[in-house]
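Methods: example folding runs. The two proteins below were folded one after another, and each record is reproduced exactly as written to the output file, sequence line first and structure-token line second.
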Amino acid sequence: MRALLRKSSVQKTLAVLIALLVWQIGAMILNEELILPTPVRVLVRLFTVWQLEGVFTAIWYSLLRIALGFFLALLLGTVLAVIAGRFPFVETLLFPYMAVVKAVPVVSFIVLAYVWMSSRTIAVFISFLIVLPTVYTGLLSGIKARDAKLEEMADVFGVSAKDRFLYLRLPNLAPYITSAVSLGAGLAWKSGVAAEIIAVTSKSIGGMLYSASLEMRNVDLFAMTALLVLLSILFEKLLVLLLKLVFRRLWHK
């Protein structure tokens, strides 16, 4: 197993290096930093982008807004999935709303939200709105996939509601929860920052990206985009790690 994981890591690292090489060749052919700076130039700027005024404040406020939207979606999505799993007619009632959110482009919701609310709350709303169907659909699939025979066995042996949830239903749901959190975290960052850019939210990563594009500071734009990717990955990995630690503590006391 470890050998397979090591092999996969090596392959992914090699793929990243090849992508960087393609980028470097493309930048050298164009030979125009204003259009496509080299990865080396972007990497150097990434280590000095912290010197930009207000960058730490922007990261903090973006993190708060996006995390709030994400956790609200996680909470409501879980509640709705549980209710829909228990009462099928609720799933039918929710279907058109979830279908619309999945189908309509994020930018359409951002433009509409810009009319309804202040620029500071748009990122929270959009992150919440985009993540909600992902959490709801993922957990509902897990609830529907539960083993009816195990449920019947629990009834026969009189297993308590607490033990049934902890040792029968939650282990079955764990992969679905982890998948929903992992996917939702990335969606929250992408949609939330997109909302900040379009709404030109002050004190935000999206606002700084917008300013860099207006001023044609392409190296800063690429460096902040790379920073955004790193923050998104870190946010996702941290949440998944915390989930796994919680599950491990529950089942391996």
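Second run, written to the same file directly after the first:
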Amino acid sequence: MPLHNFQYDTIMREYNRRQAQNRRLLEERQEEAYVKVPRLREIDEEVATLSARKARGLLSGKESGLSDLKAAISLLSEEREALLIINGYPKDYLELPCTCPLCQDTGYIGSKKCTCFKKAEIELLYTQSNLKEILEKENFDHFSFDYYSDTIKNEATGQTARDTARRAYDTARNFVRDFDSSFENLFLYGDTGVGKTFLSHCVAHELLESAHCVLYFSAFDLFDMLAASTFSKKKENGGEEFIYDCDLLIIDDLGTELTNSFVSSQLFLCINERIMRRKSTIISTNLKLENFSETYSERTFSRIASNYHMLKLIGKDIRIQKIFSGGK
């Protein structure tokens, strides 16, 4: 999805800050160089005068004398470069410095976003996702099936824990692959520590890398924020709207929060609103399916069951396995 206005403004403020910083640096360089080599100031003033005259000639359509002005400016520029080098400066010392030579720190090359803008966009989305650091370790490249048993089986399907994990992994991969062409939601359930959160992080990492807007919340933090937004006299900066409209919302550990009528109604509202807007959601929970509707409502469970791909993970707690294996 396109950046929200406040996201775009955040990136452009950084470009404006960078431009202002570079202008100050150029002014400091000019002050230093002009004192050491006074002729440099004279050259710059002459170049500025001739350039203004050339511009006026172009605007008025007068071609006569323009080639002479161009030649004069070129000679002055060569003299300036020579003076800078003789006095121990780089030849471009009095040019406006820039961090990105492609776009000159504007963020755009013509009407297209520069590669540096796209990098800034991804960096911002990572920061706002609440997942920036953890995704360096939790992504598809680090997903391992070694923690899933070939002997533990799902009684309902007859599949082993490893087969079940492979199915969930493939589904998550396909979810990412088809994200821009089809609308899907994932509901990950199973016991504590079987990889539900890790798998949602894998999806988040891939989508953030392709500049999609991903928001991650534990259930507790999500409902805490929604409560603050609902009951606060001073509304936050569109945070609630952003939850409804981001490309992917991840609600982790649903069922660990203190559930009440407000939480139940907000969960339904959030799920329903995102379905109506065709915005994807991943929910993970330790709750058993038979307990889910009791905790939230039949209406909420019906909405999820009919609009989400249900994936159950089974097996032994991976966190405990890592402790016994020395954290590997």
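Comment on the second run: DSSP finds twelve helices and seven strands in the chain.
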